[in-house]
Amino acid sequence: NIENTTLICTSTISGKFNIDVQGKLNIKQSNVSLTSEGGYGINGNQGTSVDIHVEDSTLDINGGYIGIYTYGDIQFENSDITITDTIDSSINTTKNLMITGGKSEITSSNLPICVSADIYLANADVTVNADGNNAIYARGDLEVDGGILNATTTAWYPAIYTDGEILIQNHAEVTAEGGNDAIWGVAGVTIE
């Protein structure tokens, strides 16, 4: 656990991790800055389910191959998250991504947000920019419950793509710009 702390880490060796976790990582009321050259900002040890929870904190991950990679859930709660200049993906999880409140800016030269389950955004201000793929991809559903979501890609793909359903509700402001379709939900798109 990282609590009431300022943590600054830099990795200059390709393929290494700034933070390598087994079990669970909680970051609470802290300022965390991670810089990587070809490695991972946070790695939830591969092969195990590692949940990552960031609450009332600032998390800044710059550079590297992947910003956050885990086999567990990722939750950002009332936090300022900046993940930029990653080569592959900024956030990659085999489970769920939940962002409630706070402000998140996520940029990658490939696929900024890649989630194998569901994405839930509630009353958050989220900006996602991609160069080579979807800005947001979920194998499950995407729910935007209030707040603001801006998703942009310079690639031919849709900015937001899900294999499941997309639900936009409670006066959420969603802006999507893609090379093909802006928003594509295989199971449908509902705006309430």
Word description of this protein:
With 192 residues, this protein is mainly beta. It is built from no helices and 25 strands. The chain has a nine-stranded parallel sheet with strand order 1-4-7-10-13-16-19-22-25, with no helix packed on it. The chain has an eight-stranded parallel sheet with strand order 2-5-8-11-14-17-20-23, with no helix packed on it. Strands 3-6-9-12-15-18-21-24 form an eight-stranded parallel sheet, with no helix packed on it.
Please supply descriptive tags for the structure shown above.
192 residues; mainly beta; nine-stranded parallel sheet; eight-stranded parallel sheet; 0% helix; globular
Can you lay out the helices and strands and say which pair or pack?
Blueprint: E1 2-3, E2 6-11, E3 17-21, E4 24-28, E5 31-36, E6 40-44, E7 51-55, E8 58-62, E9 66-70, E10 74-77, E11 80-86, E12 89-93, E13 97-100, E14 103-108, E15 113-115, E16 119-122, E17 125-130, E18 136-138, E19 142-145, E20 148-153, E21 160-162, E22 166-169, E23 173-177, E24 183-185, E25 189-191
